[in-house]
Amino acid sequence: MNYIKKRWVWVLSLALMMTLVLVTPAFAQDGTPPSEEVVDATLSLNIMWMIIGGFLVFFMQAGFALVETGFTRNKNVAHTMMMNMMVFCIGAIGYWLTGFAFQFGAVNAAYPGVSTAGAIVGEWAHSPITLGDWTGFLSAPLIRFGQFGFLGGSGFLLAGFGANAGLLAFFLFQMVFMDTAATIPTGSMAERLKFIGFVLMGLWVSMFIYPLVGGWIWGGGWLQNLGRSMGLGNGAVDFAGSGVVHMIGGAIGLAGAMVIGPRIGKFNKDGSANTIPGHSISLGVLGTIILFFGWFGFNPGSSLGFVGAFRNLAVIAAINTLLAGAAGGCSAMTYMWLVGPTKKPDPGMSVNGILAGLVAITAPCAFVDSWAAVVIGLIAGLIVCWATVWLEKWKIDDPVGAVPVHFFNGMWGVLAVGIFANGNPDTAAWNGVESAVTGLLYGGTTQILAQLAEVVSIFVAVFGLTYVFFKILAALKLLRVSREVELQGLDVPEMGALGYPKDWEPSDVEDSEKTFAGKRVKALGTTD
Amino acid sequence: MNYIKKRWVWVLSLALMMTLVLVTPAFAQDGTPPSEEVVDATLSLNIMWMIIGGFLVFFMQAGFALVETGFTRNKNVAHTMMMNMMVFCIGAIGYWLTGFAFQFGAVNAAYPGVSTAGAIVGEWAHSPITLGDWTGFLSAPLIRFGQFGFLGGSGFLLAGFGANAGLLAFFLFQMVFMDTAATIPTGSMAERLKFIGFVLMGLWVSMFIYPLVGGWIWGGGWLQNLGRSMGLGNGAVDFAGSGVVHMIGGAIGLAGAMVIGPRIGKFNKDGSANTIPGHSISLGVLGTIILFFGWFGFNPGSSLGFVGAFRNLAVIAAINTLLAGAAGGCSAMTYMWLVGPTKKPDPGMSVNGILAGLVAITAPCAFVDSWAAVVIGLIAGLIVCWATVWLEKWKIDDPVGAVPVHFFNGMWGVLAVGIFANGNPDTAAWNGVESAVTGLLYGGTTQILAQLAEVVSIFVAVFGLTYVFFKILAALKLLRVSREVELQGLDVPEMGALGYPKDWEPSDVEDSEKTFAGKRVKALGTTD
Amino acid sequence: MNYIKKRWVWVLSLALMMTLVLVTPAFAQDGTPPSEEVVDATLSLNIMWMIIGGFLVFFMQAGFALVETGFTRNKNVAHTMMMNMMVFCIGAIGYWLTGFAFQFGAVNAAYPGVSTAGAIVGEWAHSPITLGDWTGFLSAPLIRFGQFGFLGGSGFLLAGFGANAGLLAFFLFQMVFMDTAATIPTGSMAERLKFIGFVLMGLWVSMFIYPLVGGWIWGGGWLQNLGRSMGLGNGAVDFAGSGVVHMIGGAIGLAGAMVIGPRIGKFNKDGSANTIPGHSISLGVLGTIILFFGWFGFNPGSSLGFVGAFRNLAVIAAINTLLAGAAGGCSAMTYMWLVGPTKKPDPGMSVNGILAGLVAITAPCAFVDSWAAVVIGLIAGLIVCWATVWLEKWKIDDPVGAVPVHFFNGMWGVLAVGIFANGNPDTAAWNGVESAVTGLLYGGTTQILAQLAEVVSIFVAVFGLTYVFFKILAALKLLRVSREVELQGLDVPEMGALGYPKDWEPSDVEDSEKTFAGKRVKALGTTD
């Protein structure tokens, strides 16, 4: 009588008895599928998980702002913070206008229902309220090239969504993912990017380039269909976007850093590189922890639901995210301590090691064992150290290491699916292919090819088109600030405000204040 | 029939009928309502959503602290941070003692069940465990003036709540909302408010003035009943508190800024105003992103549940919050860039534009289409720019723009419900009126009058009473620090600690340290 | 059958039998308890609550980083931030390797099913999917000393967990709790701890000492069983870890501060102590608010579920956490204002008062009334003020007050259960004892003895063993940096990077830059 309180037992028993006595006779013949209330609760659970995940991903914007600003200089603080705050505002409007429609407003007519969205429809089909709108949305006309999905075309300004909670939550979730990709290049181009150039870049990413390529992998497009169309494993598999979000963002960042050129003083005449330390380790590390926190929305939230198999995938993703991020931090720190130039546990590289581990586990997080997550993270931590050296060799200046973290480790994460995916039966039918997602180590020989296709496609399409885009901005003198502005710092000339102004004081009392400064003065009461 | 929206009724009826037709033989006599487990899960979903929302709103306290401190000066950092930390502590105790009881410890006997709490009771009535306590709580005696609910009177110190999870979670949720209102005026009175005056203000807001007026709109009071009593639309409709929280907080802030007077040096003898820049854009922007993040608890959480229609309202609120905040940032930034004094994308005003958009969408977030959210946000971004100028013209010094953001845009948000509310059937029976919430653009002609009544009432009651309150504090010399303290900065005289002290060193080793400083010294091993 | 408490089984069986006897005639063939979908939704709700709680606790790492760094000096910023970031990375790997297995990989064969984990099994037994794995995991061999559970021995590297979402989420939740204990001592040893010593300490805590003692109280060990074995109330009861997490962390911190010795200059030759102010109140206060926010995952999340009685416990925990933290802040602030050396509302002590209240309510949060939570918090705020003075008298230097906050108030919190626990029937059968958890004030006379046993055991085992551990590190010259390094600051010698470097500029343009500095320069267009 102890664990369950008495009242509860009586109520339960009474309720059970009454119910059963009254209705038993008729219960034998039908299987009684879930009641309306159960369907409703299930739908609520799935959507609540997705939208809370979206909130956490939104918060990553604070992490990016702090990492980028912490690892750049005092004189550019207002500029760097503003880019990271406004990229969300600009991106939200852009994605609402066209981005979401381009990315998800399509379904491959040849292979219906194979997009992630399709999987959701399948699972959420319990709900008659929702299913109609989902399918209505997804059956919109598709611009196709050959038999492959290429670009969506419905859902501009959320038209036709009505009050469909599932679709609206999905929009919010996808919007903040796009935003992550859009904010990455502000790091590689920091300390020299014109604000107008940044604004145009934000529109380019949110309205076109991210939706285009993202749709190929998540919106029912041709990369996602490589399993059914060409027999390559389950097609391109990217659980939370090592490729879709991070490699896209990193490729844009790489193109940007190349076109905009290095900061004044980064490279010496003999070709050697100078280290330009950022102004605040405390802000940079704080940002890193915020990013790690937000990643628990990014990866586990990408299950897009929390009932049944969704729950398993979400929790596995959480554990692997935890372990890979930790492993990345450990390996980068250890590498720098043992092999790096300072022979010390370098804070900046430890930060990037954690982020590298997180980026790398993003695609495989739901598909691999925990030991594999640790291995993927350890390797990611090394890749970020090496890639930082490569970039300097190539004379590319990336102030915060956005390209080593997001581009190279995004690539590594996508490929890691093809190596470590363990064939968990919960992943069967991913992208419409019957078998579970299986990598090389578990006997899946073709999955790696689909992953390679994703990597190559992202590089060619995103890097290529965006390189041209930035070249045009540069030709229009919209990309890089003048030498004078760069030396002074961008804050006053570009933003009209210093990041850290000295305290302003009225001139007529300045002298008297100096007399007080530093002494303890007793409060004398109000003067007004 | 009024709380349940029509569509829902049809679907439910249809589902029920189909079910009954199939199993009727045995079912005719009872209808088998959801099982105990399903009721329990539903209740858990609703409460979980509300309490997680409450946690996010709590976190907004960090955002307010950073925005206010970032946009004020170095010499007042400890003072400004402390106000924003302690307002929660003081407010929590005050709201527990009397505030919650004043705000929600009443139900209008003439119009039972019309408060938001009443709506919850209606929807949560599935749960026999909870309903009893809810109604017991809500049927407590009411202090009434005429036929209108005016002030609650039960639930002091949570008396009678027992282990009722729904009520306790509701207390937590409402407490953090009150806290938001209480922290707003610390911004408009920053850099000159005595700490004892701040403490008394915290008690005034948490124990009396916020609960009084908040109860009129959310606790079953007379403004909420204007629909049934006077035929004005659905009565005052304020989903998450543009009026209840932000305009109340802003009105207190306005009264405070007027009574306490401008900072030394803000206005010149010729009447022109000086810009007094804050000390840290990075902290200010970080705070803004935290506030945006917390707003996803503030607005969507105000559905107070996540099952059925609650879920729809929550997700619509989330999308509209996202879009309006983004639009507010874009319009304020663009306005400053094109028309502002610096002709640059001003960081401070961009911050306030985002916050303005968020404040303005807070009342209408669940009632409007996404295009309307964008429009509301764009206008909010302009209002905040203009209101900043108005205040300076009126010689009111509001260091962080609390009044432009919260007072003026809180007002705009309340009125926007009367203009843009789209008559979504999910909102039928709001505040006990059969029809859905409908604004001018959708043919609802009287809703705007109820919204005007809310705006006027808040201004008269909150601004009026609080103006007197602050005048008394001033007369008792408890409001403003002395001229000397203000010039020196409030940190040492008021708090006994500098915000950013220089590193303390033992005097006997100071010289030797100077020798080391800046050089790389190899660690020599432990000395102890 | 052993993991389900016997009483539960009897009650359930009885209820079922009674029901079945009455209605069997028609029901013999199916029985239909809650459908698969309802079981699944219930399981999802419980796991979602636990894992979201875990995410919030993870985020507390940011709070610890900021509080510790804010309250230490500029010259050690990179070192202090790095410790707080890397402790998670190191700890995650260590806890995955051995910690979790030591802590939870056991069950007391003499008293089956009395661990918290056991209670979960009992409640989650609805779910056939999960139960199997839980029991498989928990029935692993146990290393025992006498008849008491002492150390677990299965689950290394998550072996055998498969895709069990419940177990994996439980691992994540417990990992972040361990991390909290591990990060506490970095505060008491800040500004002088060698980084290699920190790394070894992180491994010691995560891999051995925390799991050992934590398992005694949460993993089915002997302290948890004192109710059944010795008749002491419900055995050691510690809802969210005032003892397990905070007193363990504080005891490690105390041992560390004693072995490593005070910072240079902390104590004068006459024995008096100097105040060494931290470098940033804004970071310290921000960290405090983040910690408060995370505590809503820490305490309410420790219900480990959100359905039925779990929900009640979770929400009560949330309210009490809110009130006790607020009360702690109020009492510490008031004490310093009235009695403290500065006679001002000291920011540092207000911060620690809030944290003290939070630490103290952590054990009793689900067991006490709201008035008791306020009392516990008020006393905690005083304890932290007094303990700060005690430590200085004892010549122990704890830069951030980790010992007053976590050790002394952890102790107070554990004991408070024995005083204030209100016998809420929801807590009946806690730790396998029939009665509800009941303190002295409600007539429970033996609970306080079990709580005393927890306090003494933690002190003896954790402080004792860790003192030896640190002595060994000191003997190996791995614990404390040299005098030169300490005076210079640890950042450059230990980490190779300053926390706040001056802006780096290329030397050949330095002069020209000085000309620009401070002036508004118009952007001249791209130069590249």
Describe the protein.
The structure is a homotrimer of 528-residue chains. The first copy, chain A, has 528 residues and is an all-alpha fold. Helix content of chain A is 62%, strand content 1%. Chain A is globular. The N and C termini of chain A lie far apart (68 Å). The interface between A and C is large, with 105 and 102 residues.
Helix percent band of chain A? 55-70%
Structural class of chain A: mainly alpha
* Low-confidence parts of chain A: 1-5, 8-31, 108-147, 510-528
Please state the CA-atom Rg of chain A, rounded to the nearest Å.
26 Å
Number of strands of chain A: 2
- Rounded mean pLDDT score of chain A: 85
Numbering strands along the chain, what is their spatial order in the largest sheet of chain A?
Answer: 1-2
For the largest interface, the chains and their residue counts are: A-C, 105 and 102 residues
The end-to-end distance of chain A, rounded to whole angstroms, is 68 Å
| Oligomerization category of the chains in this entry | homotrimer
User: How many DSSP H or I helices of chain A?
Assistant: 18
Note the beta-strand portion of chain A.
under 5%
Give the SSE string of chain A: HHHHHEEHHHHHHHHHHHHH
The description of the largest β-sheet of chain A is: 2 strands, antiparallel
Shape of chain A: globular
